[in-house]
Structures are given as structure tokens and as C-alpha cells.
Amino acid sequence: MTTNKLTKILSGVAVLGAATATVVGITASPSHAATLAELLVPGASFTVDDKLFTDFFFIPTQPAGGCLPSFCGPVDPAAIMVSPATTSHGPGLKFDGLFFAQAGVIYDIALGYTVTVLDPHKWIKDIHMTVDGVMVGDGDLQIIETVRKPDDTVVGQCQVDNHTLAGLTCGVDLIGLHKQLKVRKDIELMGFDHVNMTIPEEVSFSILDQEFSQTTNHVPEPGTVLGLLAVGGLGLVSRFKKQK
Length: 244
Fold this sequence. Notes:
The protein has a 7-stranded mixed beta sheet, with helices on one face. By secondary structure, it is mainly β. The two termini are 22 Å apart. It is globular, with a radius of gyration of 18 Å. It is built from 3 helices and 14 strands. Strand 6 (81-84) and strand 7 (92-101) form a beta hairpin.
């Protein structure tokens, strides 16, 4: 990644307000934020409106030979800021940091948490995910988000991709209505041209928004067999074009 491009990306990353002093039980407002590293502490939580976010995890899969900060990142969760989401689909989280892979590098991250509705009269009905901020490079970006009930039953899946019709925003109705969900994002940054995998290309983005629309209907709708099949199918579409 050239110095000019890195400077351009960093200038597009928003400067967020300082995290509150207490890691456990952070109540967020538009000016409050925490590092992801703070939220990885056992027992830590982050509250946005009536949504409680807990059990955060961050698992980077480093390329062969390791991943130096100059090649891909972030490798340190302290480099990712978490704050209230900025789009209009409902309460949620914004992850703000420099997610990138240098040309010729493939970098994967698993990022997730549990979300719980605190309002007894509201239920989560759908999910929305948007890549925002500065996007640089012609490499490949793909994020697949899988949403499960506490018993690990999959109730929804959403995908964004910078080189297909999926685009950089997605939204999907969940199977049923839910008080608590486990969310996992599989983030893939491929430092190769999306058509010709022999051509190295850098790729990066700076902001990931995640939100949950909700309803006041407090009677959960039953899932359907067709819905389950549709959810299971999306995960199989994950591109296996990473040719070694």
C-alpha cells in the first residue's frame, strides 16, 4: 500500500469520542465509543438504546508467515473503535478502523457478539449491514454475516461484496422474531484482482455499520422450511476462488 493511499484512508476514518471509563456496562450515546479490545474483556457490554451487546469476539486468521501491520490489519482489536451505528434501520453498532490487505495478501477476520433486546415489548425482525467510509483498491472484499438463535439455529444470513450484485449494503428479514441473537461476521480481504487472481491488488475499507430493525409485536412468528433452506444456501455461495 503506498503512503499516499494509506494517508487517504486514515483521513477518512472518523475521530470518535473517548470511551467511558467503565468497560463493563458502557451505555452509548452519539459521542461515546469504546475500543473493541475493551469490549473483549470478560463481562464487558455495550448498550445502544434498548440493545445490549455482549460476548464480543475478534479472531484474525493470519496469512502464512504472519501478518505484519504493514501488510494487513487490523491485527489488534484496540485499533477498532465501536460506537452507535449511523444509518437509519434501528439501533446497532459501528465498527471504525482500517481494515486492509496489501497486494498479494489474503486476510480473514471473524468478528461477532451477542445482541439482546432490553425492551420487553420489542423484538428483532431483520438485520442490516453496510460498508461505509473510505474504500480503496481493486482487490476483493466479502463479508458474510450469520445470525443464530441462542441454541445456534441459523435464522438469517447477509452478504456484502465489492465486486458483485451483492454490493456494499445488505438487509434481510430474519426467520421469526427474536429477543436475543448471536452474530458472526466473516470478513475476507483478498489482495488480488477479482477477475484475474494472478494480479495483486490492495483492498481496504474503514467503517462497518450493523443495525437491527425491530417490531412491537411480541408474539414470535414461526420459522418456515423454505426460509431455512434460503438461509443455508447463502453460506454455500461464499466464493471458493481463492486459488493458491
